[in-house]
Amino acid sequence: MVLVAKKNYRTRGMGHIKYRRDRKAWVGRITIGWTSDGKRKSKELWGSTKLAVEEKIKSYDAESARLLSPNSKDQGFGAYLDWWLENIVDPYLAPKTRVDYRSKVDNWIKPILGHLKLRDIRKQHVQELVTLITKKQSPQRARSVYTVMRICINHADSEGMLLKNPTKKIKLPKVPKAKSDYYDQAETKQLIRAATHDHRFGAAYLIGAMVGLRLGEVLGLQWKHIDLEAMTIRVEQQLQYVEGQFTYKQPKNNAVRTVSFPPQVLTSLKQLRKHTRVIGQDQLLFTYEKGTRMDPSQFTQKHWYPFIKHAGLRKIRFHDLRHTCASLLIGNGENLSDVSKHLGHTDIRITTNTYAHMLPDKEAGMAERLGKMLAT
After folding, report:
1. What is the mean pLDDT of residues 49-72?
2. The whole model's pTM is what?
């Protein structure tokens, strides 16, 4: 007897494929566009086997795209998006960025505009895309999808495939600037006290709050990066978990750097070394119990959030420990340029724009001080 799985089957680029017991056949549902009010338009393709349905979907895509040749008058935008992802995005961008681009193409750009010919895309289409996503999702999502759309169209434009670039002068929604959340001095001291009792991940929390490393940078630390005598950390990689695969990549903006850490972190690192029974995969500091690499999202959900709840601290993201470090350094009067280098910012303007609200207000009394300086 042949057993048929009850769950739906889905292969990348194949839409939703499932087995219909009532008709004893397989059916694939693909998106062919969107209505003016944002509703999805779909088409069903039937076959006696899953493979047959997949072949029909491929044939449908090939026919609708009418070849990928830039010289073809029937050049499909959906097909060009696929080519752009495969030949421009995938070979050259970081794994996490590739997944992000592909998600925005598959979920928004291609379903809404993929049925058009590349040469027929107008500014109006792009504006409607932005407006639709703003209404259905958020201004921030609309801007991020537009960015991917613009990068793709700019490449086509650079190849001479367009008479006019339709992504220029698009009106984008305003995104309210979110203020960084962080612990104050008293809360950070409370975190330090609680972290001293966590021999497994206490050092990770202190490195986040007192050194300002990102979570991927923390989980990517190997013992070779730690100099206990000099009390420094060499930040030269970050650990990412993308599409079921772990990967190492350079820190954000390639900001490889050596940073110092305070005595509390030294004590915690020595405790970690003492209580570590299994030196894990790649000599990583922080791993699962069997020594394997840690998924950053699981670390947050299974360790960071339970830790701060048990410590009686209010809930903030692990990344907000980085803002905590910055606020403490700035509040302690450290030079902004030094803080910028410590955090791995490539431009001090990034530090200024992010933490401007933390800078002390020295405007009061400024006129009086200037008057005294110029007094005769």
Report:
1. 69
2. 0.69
